[in-house]
Specification:
Radius of gyration: 23 Å
Largest sheet: none
Helix content: over 70%
Number of helices: 23
Order of helices and strands: HHHHHHHHHHHHHHHHHHHHHHH
Strand content: under 5%
Distance between the termini: 13 Å
Structural class: mainly alpha
Number of strands: 0
Length: about 550
Amino acid sequence: MSGIVTDSGPEAPVAGTSAHDARTGSGRFLARAAGGAAGLTVVAALLGLVRDQAVARLFGASHASDAFLIAWTVPEMASTLLIEDGMALLLVPAFSLALTRRAAGGHAQDPVRVLVADTLPRLFAALACAGGLLIWGAPWVVGVLAPGLDDPGLAVDCTRLTAVTVLTFGVTGYFSAALRAHGRFLAPAGVYIAYNVGIIAMTLALHSFWGVRAAAAGVAVGSLLMILTLLPTYLRLVPVRRGKAAAVRARASRSAPLGAMVLAPVVLFVVSRQSQVFVERFLASSLPAGAISHLNYAQKVAQLPMVLSMMICTVTFPVVARAMAAGDREGARKRVERDLALAGTVVLLGAAVVMGCAPRIVEVLFQRGAFDAADTAATAGAMRVYALGLLGHTLVGALCRPFFSAGRPTWYPLGAMGAGLLVTTAAGALLTGPFGVDGIAAANAVGISTAALLMLLGLGSRAVAVRTGAVALSLARPVAAAAVAATAGRLVIGLVPGPVPGLAAGCLLVPTAFLLTGLVLRAPEAVHLLALIRQRFPDGR
């Protein structure tokens, strides 16, 4: 894997592709970039599972694990706002526009360095202040997030340790956005490998002295490793030229592309999207101890298919942004429609695996040590319900990119997400009492699906003129294939004895049933998925 993680040089974004491929977004480049990024994401996800297994084995579903997961809300929110969605939605279009201006020529100063000089120092200062305020206000934050905790002291300690990520994730997100706009996707995809290694190492080394605080300290250490992972490649792409900073800043002040009216809709959209987690943990804090942990483990595993499917949109986002910057609306429309269909197909395949094999997945991954069979049953039930909303989560993540790709302020995604959040809150209030964690998971699925539908309906008239009917039709057949495959998976895991053989049988049968059903239904997305796999691995490796 080391040969994949490291960029081979300034003009070789992905092995076997040219700089021209990276700039124009050729199919070969996009397939290789998506495949390479997905491979690193799988490694990071596996390490994330090892991290969760370590926490589950050492602390089970208990007051200690609940305290850590309350503190985990900070890096969870920060990663969404500062690495994945917020920073990327703001800076990938900004860097793409700067690169387009650089290619056009005729500028006294390099537009990319102008952008960096204007944004990076101010971002660093703002995030450092925000992190300090969070450390100071940790008791209040814990009280808001989980008012039902009997003893919030441990959660406060963990929250103060994880507050470091407000700064470190911001720097990581800035570097990642710059690299992605330049066509470098592998290093940004590898940062979570370094992050999870830091958490695992600190947890195993210090848990006997610090208890669950060791895992929170690992979050801080891992976030520093993320920056170190990106720094060499970033410095090669955007080297610092001393002696010209004042001139660059002066020019930047006249052409800053990131004003408050552009920042506000993106930041508020990301906060409202992540607020679903706040609602869930607020509701779960009133349930018996361990409920927050059951929801966390269920959500982490259930959302792995969404993470993989979003690699497609992550790789193509700079292509859409450059098309919008160049005025190529038709090219942007075709790209977005293809992305929605393919990302939806990938996540529906993963959702079928989760719904079909959830009990065996949880048993194999977590049922050991303090995590017992009752925890497995509760987590698997919530996981199956969460899977019903995976398509909605993927569509929201994919649709927000074309909304913000033009670099102009738009408030519609925030309105759609706010409506979805209201649905989540109302449904959670109604369903938590009678159904517990399953009711909370169901509220999540209904709310995010509402937001996805509203965003799809509003995209055509506000950003990219996608054909809503064509997108819906392209997703209908994979939905049917997922239902058939999930049913087959539930049957086979009950027939094959043993957790590991049952899971292996389910993981073999479900994708096979999904692809065969898709072909029978003549779903072109199934064919495209197979073609993407063959294009990424032409030699069958």
